[in-house]
Amino acid sequence: MNTDNLQIQIKTFFGLEPVLAEEIKKLGGRNVEIKNRAVNCEGDLGFLYKINYSARTALKILVPIHEFKAFNQHQFYDRLLKVSWEDFLDVDQTFAIDATVNSETFKHSQFMTLKMKDAIVDYFQDKFKKRPSIETKDPDIKFHLHIDRELVTISLDSSGDPLFKRGYRKEQGQAPINEVLASGMLQIAGWDGKGNFLDPMCGSGTLLIEAAMIAMDLPAQIFRKKFAFQNWKNYDAELFTKIKEVRINRIKEFEGKIVGYDIDARMLNAARMNIEAAEMEEVIEVKKQNFFDSEKELFPLLIVFNPPYDERISINDDDFYKKIGDTFKTGYPNTLAWLISSDLEAVKKVGLRPSRKVKLFNGKLETRFLQYEMYEGTKKVHKIENN
């Protein structure tokens, strides 16, 4: 593996590709290219460590190590036997394989995963008279198998656990938002830590914590204990320590306020536990407050929130979204607000025309991330409504 010029593929959620591409460019990625739910780029080993540690909208970071074409299962198995697996895996290490298959020839990802496992084990048995073990939960080395029609790509997963697992979530509510999605939403909304931030329906606090991490330039994985690349043969512990030190030295003070409201005391307790785990008690304030009875207290202010919607939590949608719009209009003049929802009909009851719409997925739910601009004075409000 040429560690000076690695080909790197970074996975993300649909709709966050441009945000991730921007992050990767800022972190020093070369030849950054947007793909479907992914960004490709080039960089050295240090860059690979840096993006695992710092990229907020990355889900997993893969390094392709082998590519070939196969037109049937026998060919697939035979080609895999020609890979020098000992370059990536020791016989006494454990390994796992995850797979993405899009092919008429190879229809079942589980079956192809088993064939690849057999090829690796048979290779070691034949060459060393010993075999590495499979460990699905916490393997030393994680391979990713991607089959697109007859093109097979084998990659090393440099991350291990998905990168949305930041390490601060101790408690979660009924419908928590994924950390990567939360960070992507904040970046789309333009949150850069200047001014103040409000999540008026904060649940277990994910948006609040991600907003604080952006505001303080805290590395996304500052709480993570381990990455898969630390088990690689070419792992450079000294280099990784240096990279972490440089990123930690960039952490800055945050002058504004980050506030969360919720009406559910249990949710507020969960949020406080997560905020404490993220060591953010001095940065984030949460309080029991009904957003519909609230008024703007912070200037300037950005609102981003994930109201309950669709199959996750039952609410009276029409009335609920109408109340959101009424509260925006009466209580939050001269404010920029964003909300995410999968209920595209009910969200029309907000009564304000969104100035931006971004298609995102929250799990399997197709959603819209909507921007509303509130202006002071009824004339402007009516103008927006009637456009």
Describe this entry's structure for a reader.
This protein is α/β, with parallel strands linked by helices. The chain folds into two domains: 6-157, VC0802-like (2-Layer Sandwich); 179-218 and 235-249 and 256-386, 3-Layer(aba) Sandwich (Rossmann fold). It has ten helices and 15 strands. The protein has helices at residues 17-26, 45-54, 73-81, 109-128, 179-188, 206-216, 237-248, 265-277, 317-331, 378-386, and strands at 6-11, 30-35, 38-43, 60-69, 94-102, 133-134, 141-148, 151-157, 196-199, 258-262, 284-288, 301-305, 335-341, 356-362, 365-374. The longest helix is centred in the first third of the chain and has 20 residues, at 109-128. The termini are far apart.
> Termini separation (Å)?
57 Å
Overall body shape: elongated
Oligomeric state of the chains in view = single chain
CATH topology of the largest domain: Rossmann fold
Helix content: 25-40%
**Count of domains:** 2
Q: Provide the structure class.
A: alpha/beta
Number of helices: 10
Contiguous runs where pLDDT drops below 50 for at least 5 residues? 378-387
Q: Mean pLDDT, nearest integer?
A: 93
Lateral arrangement of strands in the main beta sheet:
2-3-1-4-8-7-5-6
Major sheet characteristics: 8 strands, mixed
Radius of gyration of CA atoms, rounded to a whole number: 23 Å
H and E string: EHEEHEHEHEEEHEHHEHEEHEEEH
Number of E-type strands: 15
Estimate what percentage of residues fall within beta strands. Answer: 25-35%
CATH architecture of the largest domain: 3-Layer(aba) Sandwich
CATH class of the largest domain: Alpha Beta
Please name the fourth-level CATH homologous superfamily of the largest domain: Vaccinia Virus protein VP39
